[in-house]
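Below is how a single chain appears once it has passed through the pipeline. First comes the sequence as given, then the structure the pipeline wrote out for it. We keep one example in the README because the format questions we get most often are answered faster by looking than by reading.
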Amino acid sequence: MNSAVSDILNMGIRPNKALGQNFLVDDAAVQAIVKRVTESRLPVLEIGAGLGAITVPIAQSGVRLAAVELDERLLEALLSRAELADVRLIHGDILKCDLGEIASCLGGSIAVCGNLPYYITSPICKRLILSGLDIPEMTLMMQAEAAERFTAEPGDDSYVPLTVLYRYMYDISTLLKLSAESYYPRPEVSSTVLFMRRRRDSLPEGLARVTTAAFAMRRKTLYNNLAAAGIPRQRAADAIAAAGLPASVRAERLTVEQFAALAELLKDEG
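Resulting structure:
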């Protein structure tokens, strides 16, 4: 167990299972993540400071940093650490706090990193991709099953709306694969650290709405899902044909570029 964990546990703090707290205690993994996060020298927003395993070395690198932590016990412990004197430590819920205000305080363009709790990985990632913030890079740690959604290919069971949005905006690679032994307490699953570098400036208008509608019922055709979402049937049929897709196609068979083309054709639909 590394020293940061020992110090805080000695203060009587124990992980909160309800918050999905599994703290990274693998020093080699910490070094690899911090190197990746700080390489661009962009200001950093960290999601879930936890015990400070990532927070402290990022701060020591001299990169500007804001870290959001929901657990007030951990935040109080972090506030007492001299190494974090220049870090903006925020007590709050990443799903509710003002991301725009945080980014503005950091200078606008930011990198994002974090050890994401499994039960809110998708909501966090959806909020980030739809936030409109200038985020050239993300380094996100999550359970391996969740990571598969970001690297899935058309036809995979894990190919979902988030796959399309992130694959359109970012080049995504696996930085690390971590076993349960890398965490305290040990989870029942393994984890993956993904690195994402932005490849486009913005999402096409309506792409999020189209993908949400298209995947609403995986057993239904794309046409039926679009019609069920309120798009006039003839308009849906015409858009599918104009995109060069077969009438009976299902959403999970479309490539990211085909979804983007479909969104362009349907951008005037609410």
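Residues 207-265 form a domain with the Helicase, Ruva Protein; domain 3 fold (CATH 1.10.8.100).

See the next section for the split statistics.
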